[in-house]
Structures are given as C-alpha cells and as structure tokens.
Amino acid sequence: GTGLRRVRLRADGNIQEATSYVIDLDFAASGHPSFRNVGLTFHDVPVLQDLELGLLKTPFGMDAMTSGRELMFMERQMPFALVPFRQIMIGVRGSSEDKAVSWGGAVYRMPTDSFGVYEGGSGGIAVAGRVTTALFYEDDGATVLHIGGGYSVGSPGNGVVRYRIQPGFFSRDPGTDANDPGTVPVFLDTGNIPASTFNLFNLEAGMNLGAAHVVAEMRWAMVNQNAGPSLAFPGFYVQASYVLTGEHHRYSRERGVFQRVIPKRPFERGKGTGFGAWEAAIGYSMLDLNQENIAGGRGEELALGLNWYLTRNAKLQLNVLPATLSKPGFGESDLTVAALRAQVEF
Length: 346
Hints:
- This protein starts with 7 loop residues before the first strand and ends with a strand.
- The strands form 3 sheets. It has a 16-stranded antiparallel sheet that branches. The chain has a two-stranded antiparallel ribbon with strand order 10-11.
- The protein contains 1 helix and 20 strands.
- The longest helix is centred in the first third of the chain and has 4 residues.
- It has 346 residues and is mainly β.
C-alpha cells in the first residue's frame, strides 16, 4: 500500500510577549483536514510557569510527548494504544531553574474526536501528570540519563474504554476505512468495554552515550468493568540505535524528550558537502490485551530500522517489522511489514 501519512500545516506564534498559540492541521487525516494541536499558552504564570488550554497532548508517556517528526521508528509502538494522547484539556507544565526536572499536569475530557468535540455524556473527566529528570546531562546532551513516570485516572464520558492499535506502521491515517485494501489492519483490539473508571501508569527511561541511544517504557492500564472483573493490560517497549556517522539524538530538558539527529555534514546533491547522518535501530515491543473476559490479543513485535537524515529538515526511513499475534480461539498469526517513508519539513 501507499499513502500520505501526514500532511501537516502549522501556524504558531505569540499573541503578546507572554502568550502564544498553535493551530496544527493534518490534511492527510480522516475527515480532511483534522485538528492535531490547537491551543493557547500563557507563559511565566506565577508558580504554574506555563498554563495551556485547548486540544493538546495530555502529559503522559515519553513516546506520546515526542513529536511524530522526531521518532526513531516510523510510528509509536504497540503500548501507545494505552495513551490518552490528544484531548480537550487545561494543563500546566514547567521545569526547575536548572532544567534538571520537568513536569506537566492536566485535567482533560475524554473521549474527544479529531475535531476537538467531546463525544460523551455527563462525567468524562480525567487527570494526568508526568514528571521527568535528567540524572546527568553533559556535552550538550551527548551524554544524558533520563528517567520519569506518569499517571492518569478518570471516568470515560461515553461509559466505555477501548484499546486498539495497528502493528507499528500506517500506510494511511488510522481513521481510514478498515475495508480499504491499502490500510494496514488493526492488530490488537479490546472492543468496547463498559467501565466506570480507568487508571494508567507509566515508567520511562532513556540515555545517550555519544552515538549510542536507548529508550524504554513500561505501561499498564487498569480498568474497572461495570459488570465483570477488574482488568490489567500491560505493555512495554525498548529501542536502541547507533548513529553510524557519530552524531547523537538531541535531548530537551524542558520537555523531557529525545529529539532527532542533526547531521554535521548535510547532504546536498551535486555539491559533495556530505552524506548526512545514518542511524541503525532495533526495537522490541509487547502489549497484552488478553485479560479475563476480554480477548483483545497479545502482540509482540521486533522492529529493525535504518534512518538517513539528509539535513535537519529531511529524512528517509526504512523499517522491517516482524510481529506475532496471539488470540484465544485463533492461535497465533504472523505478520511482517516492510516500509519506506520520506519526510520533509519547511
């Protein structure tokens, strides 16, 4: 299959010195276009630092808070299914004076669709928080050790929770018709679970040792069913890479996330100035949605990647993703995805 995964048009800036805005549209999304980030932020608020409101990312999970432009692999891996991600929210974020610690917290309504519309009835209130620290930070992030944690608790406004995800790659937006032959099918799916409350937990770690880079997260969703036993859905991933040309992943201490590689010698056709930066990556992820009376499937996936950062604004990615699905009543199924993606920003 082929398709346009993202076609994003973003406007951001300052309304005044201490007030900023963002409007981010994706023309490749289902609904054409759909909102991605639409928000207003008040900076330098006493005690709170930054106060933000709008359709924004809830502060939960390192992979979720990392921009899709900065990911090591093409997509976030299977445990991402447990993240509340973008919702209508009011939140705060900030960092310590030396930037060694960062934090974020939010009150949000869920579920919210891609147009920022709340899709529930009464209730639907949840809170989320994330705290990270860089235990050491040297050489402009070439050597850094990051740890953090997150928590979210809430009540679904439509009375159900559902966790579902495709296997590490989308040829088109996930909202595309599942019967379209060009769409990668949903791999894991609990279906709608009538529930009163949910609790989400996250532990995260990452480090740079020069050109070597490792990140990992462990995640759980605890669901209180209306008519059935309590459920626990665990998942984790670990990823490692080595930048063959010697650069390193940047690290944002204010956000507590790792960012893209910027080549020291960018590639410019016909001028012989350099070959960009090359990175080899490997990862493994697992998500278990087979619990008690729920047969959502248990997925395991290996990820192999080769990234070519031509310039700071352009990259090519090659991913090979062998995966296994185990589901009660169906046994095991195997899948391998081979995918190539080009990305450019300007």
